[in-house]
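Weekly sync, protein design subgroup
Attendees: M.S., D.O., the rotation student, P.L. (late)

Item 1: inverse folding check
M.S. brought a backbone from last month's batch and wanted to see whether the design step gives back something sensible before we order anything. D.O. pointed out we never logged the input encoding, so this time it goes straight into the notes. Structure tokens as presented (191 positions):
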């Protein structure tokens, strides 16, 4: 380990961009990194983050170098340890939030993992089905009269109540109801 003055000088040089100073500090705190990595390796979140743990710790190390102020009289090792704990805690928290809001399907045992995804239900129509449905709708609308199209537009596009549609068409609400019933019957026959 280095004396307090040597360590502060290395931190100052590392802040200025000296890779040699960073490497010396990293080497000096390798044991702390290993300890932090292994401390959480057996937790569920630790297992999820095992591949990223080294990068998380090194990033926290660089942030600690830039945030450390020797004038406060705090030992860098204690400051670094608190920063590393904070970074790991933040990573665990993000992992738990991601897992809580994300469904991860479990794959069946066996060699063919791709067959699992082939058997999943798809509730979205294929583009071909959407195109066919659109063409069918266009053909149905072509068969309707102008009055029927206007009634469809008022009730289903503008979402007006039947009373408001009756006022716009200058007919009674009962007549709108009857026309709507007849229109639905006609559309079902055309479909």
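Designed sequence read out in the meeting:
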């Amino acid at each position: 380990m280095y004396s307090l003055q040597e360590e502060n000088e290395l931190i100052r040089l590392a802040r200025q961009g000296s890779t040699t100073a960073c490497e010396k500090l990293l080497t000096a705190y390798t044991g702390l990194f290993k300890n932090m990595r292994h401390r959480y390796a057996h937790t569920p979140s630790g297992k999820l983050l095992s591949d990223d743990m080294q990068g998380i710790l090194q990033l926290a190390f660089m942030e600690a170098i830039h945030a450390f102020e020797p004038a406060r009289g705090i030992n860098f090792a204690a400051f670094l340890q608190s920063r590393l704990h904070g970074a790991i805690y933040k990573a665990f928290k993000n992992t738990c939030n991601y897992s809580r809001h994300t469904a991860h399907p479990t794959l069946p045992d066996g060699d063919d993992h791709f067959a699992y995804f082939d058997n999943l239900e798809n509730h979205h129509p294929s583009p071909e089905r959407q195109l066919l449905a659109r063409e069918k709708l266009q053909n149905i609308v072509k068969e309707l009269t102008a009055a029927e199209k206007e009634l469809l537009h008022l009730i289903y596009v503008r979402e007006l109540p039947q009373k408001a549609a009756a006022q716009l068409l200058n007919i009674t609400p009962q007549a709108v109801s009857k026309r709507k019933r007849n229109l639905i019957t006609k559309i079902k026959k055309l479909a």
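Discussion: Residues 128-190 form a domain with the Butyryl-CoA Dehydrogenase, subunit A; domain 3 fold (CATH 1.20.140.160). The longest helix spans residues 76-101.
Action: P.L. to compare against the previous round before Friday.
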